[in-house]
Amino acid sequence: MSGTSIGRIVIVGAGLSAARAAAALRRKGFTGDLVMVGAEPHLPYDRPPLSKEVLRGTRESTALPFDPGKLWVQVRVATTATGLDLDSRLVRTSAGEEPFDGLVIATGAAPVRLPGDGEQLVLRTLEDALALRGRLAPGARVVIIGASWIGAEVATAALEAGCRVTCLEAGTAPVAQALGEEVGRLFLPWWSGVDLRLGTAVREVAPGEVCLADGGTVPADVVVTGVGVRPAIGWLAGSGLALGRGVRVDEHLRASAPGVVAVGDVAQRYSPRAGEHILVEHWDDAGTAPAVAAAALLAGADDELAVHDPVPYFWSDQFEHKIQYVGRHGALDRVEIDREDAQGFPVVRWFDNDGVLTAWLGVDRARELVKARTAVRTRPTPAEAGLPVQR
Ligand SMILES: Cc1cc2nc3c(=O)[nH]c(=O)nc-3n(C[C@H](O)[C@H](O)[C@H](O)COP(=O)(O)OP(=O)(O)OC[C@H]3O[C@@H](n4cnc5c(N)ncnc54)[C@H](O)[C@@H]3O)c2cc1C
């Protein structure tokens, strides 16, 4: 039996994965009531442009293609889910209870903030981006905490606006947490316009300055904290749903309770490819998971379920370059920095212990992306890839 006629589906969250879930449910024939509950005062919008075009002032709206009227979705904007009762099958919200037969959890992630009572800007919402843009005045002392993807994109916009930019990074290279020190150091020349202080840990943000772990201080007109995000699962505490760092779901995106799925940044999904539960936190995953989750939610008992386990992909636009990364390397993987094209940025490949390609990184090489993704998906050994085998 198909579940397309189950009575009422509630989607909690109103970002990319929520919008895609609503569309996928209707596309797959769901005809019942569909309700979307979103904490922000907006219909779903896209986030990657916030730290790029919006911050640089070349774009105002990032609204996603989503028409509640066409999809028959009742959207409750500015409404926050505060709890989940699995026995009564309802979501508690700031505006009352929402009973459900099926539930899609799509609450994304929230930025980590550092201790201290000084003003700290973060970058997750449209309001965050507009507030920060308004502060990027020529000559302003902008202190960015974290030489991360967000940190680099904010630095790019701040330099362009004529700010004096300092970046405090606890690690030994930009983006080293994601890519490792050896690869992170390749990006150092891009940061030449920034006072980049590596190995610099922050203790707290005080009014007008950032206090360092070594007792020093850095004066600031604007402080931007870009030290990562945490899945937004606080509202699920005590619900009985299995939680790890995010909502634990299987490879079909089903959570531990029947009729509940999770997608996007909030989902810690089982990846057969990785052999473990992983948090992906990239746009591509949030955009593609909902079709599989919707099918799982609507499936009858005898239906075969699709698996969501794509090769992870993300990009970042910074310092006038586009970085693209596909795959998922382990901390102990061997890094190969291919400088064959002396003019451009090297291509980086990672190989696991068995010599299997696990990840690829290219800069300004958009045309090679599909090939690289296929190469990682089909996991050739170095010999098969025509590369020297090193163990
Ligand atoms: C500034 C920025 C730049 C980025 N750039 C890139 C990039 O270049 N490349 C890339 O691959 N990825 C990028 N990303 C990541 C990408 O945008 C995310 O992976 C994607 O937005 C995740 O979508 P989502 O729907 O899971 O979560 P979100 O887009 O975060 O949406 C979740 C929604 O749920 C709402 N919500 C949270 N809690 C509740 C609650 N309790 N009740 C109701 N609603 C709630 C939130 O307010 C939010 O509106 C970027 C992210 C940001 C913030």
Task: Write a concise keyword list for the protein shown above.
alpha/beta, FAD/NAD(P)-binding domain, 391 residues, 3 domains, binds flavin-adenine dinucleotide
Q: What's the short version?
A:
The chain has 391 residues and is an alpha/beta fold. 19% of the residues lie in helices and 28% in strands. The protein has helices spanning 16-27, 53-56, 68-71, 126-135, 149-160, 176-179, 181-184, 283-298, 369-378; strands at 8-12, 33-37, 73-76, 81-85, 90-93, 96-99, 102-105, 109-111, 141-145, 164-168, 195-197, 202-206, 209-212, 217-219, 222-225, 229-231, 247-249, 260-262, 267-271, 276-279, 313-318, 321-327, 334-338, 347-351, 357-363.
What does this structure look like?
This protein is α/β, with parallel strands linked by helices and 391 residues long. The chain folds into three domains: 8-110 and 229-298, FAD/NAD(P)-binding domain (3-Layer(bba) Sandwich), CATH 3.50.50; 113-225, 3-Layer(bba) Sandwich (FAD/NAD(P)-binding domain); 320-378, no CATH class. It is built from nine helices and 25 strands. It has helices spanning 16-27, 53-56, 68-71, 126-135, 149-160, 176-179, 181-184, 283-298, 369-378, and strands spanning 8-12, 33-37, 73-76, 81-85, 90-93, 96-99, 102-105, 109-111, 141-145, 164-168, 195-197, 202-206, 209-212, 217-219, 222-225, 229-231, 247-249, 260-262, 267-271, 276-279, 313-318, 321-327, 334-338, 347-351, 357-363. It has a five-stranded parallel beta sheet with strand order 3-2-1-7-18. Strands 21-22-25-24-23 form a five-stranded antiparallel beta sheet. Strands 11-10-9-15 form a four-stranded parallel beta sheet, covered by helices on one side. The protein is globular, with a radius of gyration of 22 Å. The model has no long low-confidence stretch (mean pLDDT 94). The structure holds flavin-adenine dinucleotide. Flavin-adenine dinucleotide is lined by residues 12-18, 37-40, 47-48, 50-51, 80-81, 106-109, 123-124, 150, 232, 235, 264-266, 281-284, 286, 314-316.
